[in-house]
Amino acid sequence: MKTLGELKASGYPDRTVKEELRHNLLERMRAGGPLFEGIVGYEDSVVPTLERAVLAGHDVILLGERGQAKSRLIRHLASLLDEQVPAIEGCEINDHPYHPICARCRALVAERGDDTPISWIGRDLRYAEKLATPDASVSDLLGDVDPIKVAEGRYLGDELTIHYGLVPRTHRGVFAINELPDLPERIQVSLLNILEERDIQIRGYKIRLPLDLMLVASANPEDYTHRGRIISPLKDRFGTQVRTHYPRTIPEEIAIMRQESRPPPAGVSVTVPVHLEEVIAAFTHHLRASSQVNQRSGVSVRFSIGALETVAASAIRRAARKGEPEAVARVVDLWTVLPGSIGRVEFDALEEGREPQILERALKRALLDVYRARLGGEDLSRLLDRFDQGLELETSDLTSPAELLAQIGGGRGLKLERLASCLGLSSESPAAAAAAIEFCLEGLHLTKRLNKSATDSPSGWRFESG
To answer: Residue 205 pLDDT more than 70?
Structure first.
């Protein structure tokens, strides 16, 4: 279909963007497939609220701390748009062939009627987002006079001299504003008509552009009332407020970590055992619950994702340095996360220099939680006997599995198969066996059955009888 007449003859439906979104959402719901792929932990909380907002035809504001997938949710809304829709060919604002709103397209349809040429635009061209910044202007969002068009001989009052901003260019689509409270209040005022009367006013032009779009905004709850603010008339115009949250369970946190972490370099294989993933997730949850961490800022899921990537990188580094055939992460790799974590967590007022101790305490609590859950009922007396007989074991992030196992006689008589099984590892792999032994040692230390002290080597530890 290349003309308006052919489009009419085909019976193409005449519906608004919100009707289109509602129709496509209902189709997905009836099909039973996932509505928002890659979104974990929101199935029973955020997603139902968002579904109701779309079905109600509301504009939406999402409130949540950093790293709660607000932007991803907004972009998923755009996936509910039709794959392609018709627009009058050459229109800057994607005018609907049935209902042109700009002066150029109204004149074109009046002149050519059913012979008006149309083109088809994809959903990627019907979504736009703007990060709210203090330097944003009304002209960025709505538009302004185009001096070049004026120079070509048109009058200033001519509608054809307008250079449209982001909002009208997203006509018949989804427009998102991230961090809305950061938008100056005078700019927020310009959005009032869009949300209520569905039109815009540009400079002093006597025009009304009845835009067809869905407006979605995001904000941090703290910013919502303090750092910046959303003016009351604008808040009132959002039909639905959606409150996001961090993963509420360890399995949800792990699922997000696995999904979002970067893959290792090509040709490199690395394993982060599940018990270490559980430690990283529990570590993050302890920080989120800590009274010494600024919870208004939050501890993003990017923190746990970055920690998983760091642990994997430490294992890869050890394997490369030692010429090991496989890279398996161990407890010692967890401690490499701490130096790079201080800047990623905001602490409440503390004495200078106490941040590392807070992080270390949270990591130890996470290690102890997982140790008790995984190995709390296991008999480790044979391992303890070796230390009672004078064994001192040293390990570091560059200690190879062979070097670690050699210090305890290769692990003979230590029920390695049983211990590895409890941790989801294979005892036949030296690297996995070393990971199991090191986790046992850390757990014995945290339950005050072994002493642990730092060695002279960087990231080095010595375990000995208490």
So the answer is: no
Assigned token pair, 96: 């609907």
What CA–CA distances, in Å, run from 269 to 167, 272, 307, 317, 329?
A: 46, 10, 18, 12, 11
Model pTM score: 0.88
Indicate the domain borders of the chain: 4-243, 250-465
- Three-state DSSP state, 461: strand
Could you give the residue ranges of the DSSP H alpha helices within 211-338?
Answer: 221-225, 232-237, 250-260, 274-289, 301-322, 331-334
Nearest to residue 211, comparing CAs of 167, 166, 158? 167
pLDDT band at 68 (very low <50, low <70, confident <90, very high): very high
Give the least confident one: 288-297, 345-354, 403-412: 345-354
Instruction: Quickly state the pLDDT bin for 204 (edges 50, 70, 90).
Output: low
- By CB atoms closer than 10 A (0-12, 13-18, 19+), residue 362 is buried
CATH number belonging to the domain at 4-243, selected among 3.30.70.1530, 3.40.50.300, 1.10.8.420, 1.20.140.10:
3.40.50.300
